[in-house]
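Researcher: Here's a chain I'd like modeled. Treat it as a single chain, no partners, no ligands.
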Amino acid sequence: MRIAPTFNVALRALRRNKMRSMLTALGIIIGVAAFIAMVGVGHGAKARVEAQIASLGQNIILVFSGSTTTSGIRTGWHGAGTLTIEDAQAIRREVPGVIALSEEIESTTQVAAGNQNWFTRIYGESADYFDIRQWPLADGAPFTPQDVRSANKVCVIGRTTASQIYGNDDVVGQILRIKNVPFVITGVLTPKGLSTHGVDQDDIVIMPYTSAMKRVIGGYKLRNINVQVGNANDLSGAQQQIIELLRQRHHIRAGQDDDFTVRNQQEIVDAATATSRVMTLLLGAVAGVSLIVGGIGIMNIMLVSVTERTREIGVRLAVGAHGRDILMQFLIEAVSLSSLGGVFGSILGVGASQFVAWKFEWPTLISIGSIAIAFLFSAAVGVFFGFYPARKAAQLDPIEALRYE
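Model: Modeled as a single isolated chain. Structure tokens:
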């Protein structure tokens, strides 16, 4: 069997019916384009979430104030202040691998300077917070451990808060009144944009947690404890040690529920990206159905082609062509149609993804892998759905085929 002549015959047959060939390939084009575009949108959303989770820092363990149960009523996360400064100190002191820790409390309040005011979030943190979050300053300097020990009236603010209160003025060294307490601004944070929950991360004021407790928010309980370990391999071990330490410190007996919650960064990533993973699978499945429908269209047209060309097949068999030559010819026609659809579908899919990203400002991420999978799948569809018509053509009886009208 000579491939080149068979290939030429197959292509001539496709060129004789250009419109039909184009319409047949259209199903594959739409399917491949839909697969690439939809998977690109799904992967883009997942990458965006992962990038925002990464903004928390590296190798992070978050300890949340947990629930308490009173008269059968459970308060849920942050429902009660169950973490103390002593808990944080014990974690820093007794859990191996901990390289940084930030005690955290949070509130919202009105802040003001001159004749301007703004409602924003107030965070009390330790001096390690900026290293844990890998959050550099655009201007000025962070507060120091000495500021934390002395509960000094200093703070660092986000870009949104700075622009709302001071406009374009230089804010370092300015006085910001928080609940009528004057705080000196030591620095402005580098903008981070929206969080995974759509919250503006730059609309924030960060001060020493001791200052927040004594001068602004009050109380002595912590909302969170942010813990950073030196090695990603130590995350699970450190997490378990923190749980055991806090259960011991809070006198929680076996069988009782914890009054705190501990999550490591990987768990947060998995939870946050679960939705986008499901969305990517669903979108890919819908596009896969489109490809299958396109393959059915190829089979239908190839069966019609076999019927139309029965006499031609009979002539070829009568002059010495083998059944495998006929089989190969029709397979080449089917695969050519599906591959052509794969090429144009890939181009259309990439273009559609870029259009979605530009028009709707939705993140898209096109990978070479998704394009290769779509193209190979389209070719496989051609082989799968083209084999039966090709086999039917190859099994025609030459005499019956020559007599066919």
